[in-house]
């Protein structure tokens, strides 16, 4: 469920954002750029420099797609706020990243549960300029296309704990790799400067680890070398899912979500 409405692009793929929406992007960029320069991993920062995103207005998907295509053959396409796993995996397999077309409200400035265009473009597209991360993301999509529906929730955990909320180590320091961290003013600080649990990157462990999308993560996985992540895409992930399913989920590290009466 979402409280946001999709913005409809014109025939050329452009969206008419108003002054208030552009101001939210401007203020998010002003707040987050110093944080990512300090806390994010080099592959993300190199991609951010390659894209040279505007700081004063919401970027347009056709414009972001130009440097992406030149770097890795990927593009960005606007979609409604939330899409199903099947469509998501299909778009990744075809080197198209789905970007929610709306931008968060002032009320959700610090943290938004659902992905908005700031998360999609500022958070995700920098890593997609790197051929290795782009290939890993495409491999997740291709695996998802082969997976049964009941496997979707298992497979997405590998994406969640790496591309979305992965950590890595650079020169002995913990750095943020995941796009969900790069785009969150509060969770980026929590993941790096707070006291979450951190575990070594392990595919089976990740597949067995439940998560919630509406809270700061209590647990992150640390990718020591990027080859560990890229080799994961070469595994038989469907067999890994079967193994993880047989072993069962870990107990959650978070409280159950309260459902309003």
In words, what does this structure look like?
With 261 residues, the protein is of the alpha/beta class. The chain has one domain (19-247): Phenylalanine Hydroxylase (Orthogonal Bundle), CATH 1.10.800. It is built from twelve helices and six strands. The strands form two sheets. It has a four-stranded mixed beta sheet. Helix 4 (85-93) crosses helix 6. The longest helix is centred in the N-terminal third of the chain and has 21 residues, at 19-39. 39% of the residues are buried.
Descriptive labels:
261 residues; 47% helix; Phenylalanine Hydroxylase; alpha/beta
Summarize this, please?
With 261 residues, this protein is an alpha/beta fold. The protein has helices at residues 19-39, 42-51, 61-72, 85-93, 117-124, 131-146, 152-164, 179-182, 187-193, 203-207, 226-232, 237-247, and strands at residues 75-79, 96-100, 167-170, 173-176, 197-200, 219-223. Helix 4 (85-93) packs across helix 6 and helix 6 packs antiparallel against helix 7.
């Amino acid at each position: 469920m979402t409280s946001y409405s999709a913005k409809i692009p014109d025939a050329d793929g452009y969206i008419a954002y108003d002054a208030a929406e552009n101001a939210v992007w401007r203020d998010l960029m002003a707040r987050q750029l110093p944080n990512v320069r300090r806390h994010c991993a080099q592959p993300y920062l190199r991609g951010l420099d390659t894209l040279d995103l505007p700081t004063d207005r919401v970027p347009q998907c056709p414009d972001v797609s130009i440097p992406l295509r030149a770097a890795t053959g990927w593009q960005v396409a606007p979609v409604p706020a939330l899409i199903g796993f099947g469509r998501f995996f299909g778009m990744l397999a075809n080197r198209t990243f789905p970007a929610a077309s709306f931008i968060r409200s002032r009320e959700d400035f610090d943290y938004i549960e659902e992905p908005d265009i700031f998360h999609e473009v500022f958070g995700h597209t920098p890593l997609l300029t790197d051929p290795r991360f782009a290939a890993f993301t495409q491999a997740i999509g291709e695996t998802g296309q082969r997976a049964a529906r009941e496997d979707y929730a298992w497979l997405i955990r590998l994406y969640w704990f790496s591309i979305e909320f992965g950590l890595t180590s650079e020169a002995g320091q913990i750095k943020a790799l995941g796009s969900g961290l790069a785009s969150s003013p509060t969770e980026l600080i929590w993941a790096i400067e707070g006291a979450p649990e951190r575990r070594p990157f392990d595919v089976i462990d990740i597949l067995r680890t439940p998560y919630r999308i509406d809270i700061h993560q209590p647990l992150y996985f640390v990718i020591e070398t990027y080859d560990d992540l890229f080799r994961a895409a070469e595994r038989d992930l469907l067999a890994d899912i079967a193994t993880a399913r047989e072993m069962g989920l870990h107990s959650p590290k978070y409280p159950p979500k309260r459902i309003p009466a």
